[in-house]
Design a protein that fits this description.
Number of strands: 7
Largest sheet: 7 strands, antiparallel
Shape: globular
Strand content: 15-25%
Number of helices: 8
Structural class: alpha+beta
Length: about 240
């Protein structure tokens, strides 16, 4: 076994911590590379124990959906081709079938961002959960992060804060909106019922829809969500 060099105890401790963090990062990277819906037996067992055996088929249906869409969508995003539009519609439709439930009723807290696995396993979610599940599914299907944004909006008709997913065919193009409030994907200009507040993806945050405001790691719920997903994939 490799032995640490003769260092002062404090430096040895810091070095060991550094090795641990590096190993954890490598494990996370490897697990994330394995694929979004490559569920381990440990994860499926934990899901069945927590939410019942009926939860497992919902996860496997997601896996089947991703497997069916991947041959169609891969390589079609830049520049976008017609099959991508069908992938957007199918992804929107797949997750919109899940029953809506507020975080307070579902999780007993005011705000909770569930992973797609938690959403499907528990068979309920709210607006952030739908948007996130669509976001990560499209990323797994090959969509670049630069084409996608989670958008926090004011839904004017219901007078509530709301979250949707925006897809940009090109950086300068008008985005299309994937939303639980409607099954139809429309250009943003046709969604006059939505007032954008801020948006983000894996990399950046925007105020409104144009002005960059920093890195997405500033959003605690987003950061926590991605960490939970990494833990699920590492099981």
């Amino acid at each position: 076994m490799y032995k640490l060099p003769a260092l002062p105890a404090r430096k040895q401790a810091r070095f060991k911590v550094g090795l641990f963090v590096l190993a954890l990062s490598l494990c996370t990277a490897i697990s994330m590379a394995a694929g979004l819906t490559e569920f381990s037996a440990n994860l499926l067992s934990a899901i069945a124990k927590r939410w019942g055996q009926s939860a497992v088929p919902r996860l496997l249906a997601w896996k089947e959906f991703i497997q069916e869409e991947k041959p169609v969508a891969q390589g079609q995003w830049s520049p976008p081709k017609t099959p991508v539009v069908n992938t957007l519609k199918n992804t929107n439709r797949f997750f919109n079938k899940i029953p809506y439930q507020t975080d307070q009723a579902h999780w007993g807290v005011t705000d909770y961002w569930a992973t797609p696995v938690e959403m499907l396993a528990s068979n309920a979610g709210d607006c952030e959960d739908y948007a996130a599940a669509k976001y990560f599914s499209l990323r797994d299907l090959g969509a670049p992060a630069g084409q996608l944004r989670m958008v926090y909006v004011r839904a004017l008709k219901i007078n509530e804060a709301h979250m949707v997913l925006a897809w940009y065919p090109t950086p300068e193009a008008e985005p299309y909106i994937l939303d639980i409030l409607t099954g139809e994907i429309k250009p943003a200009s046709q969604r006059t019922d939505l007032e954008p507040v801020y948006s983000f993806n894996d990399d950046d945050i925007w105020a409104g829809d144009t002005q960059k405001k920093g890195g997405a790691s500033q959003i605690r719920f987003w950061k926590d969500l991605k960490e939970k997903m990494a833990r699920e994939q590492a099981m």
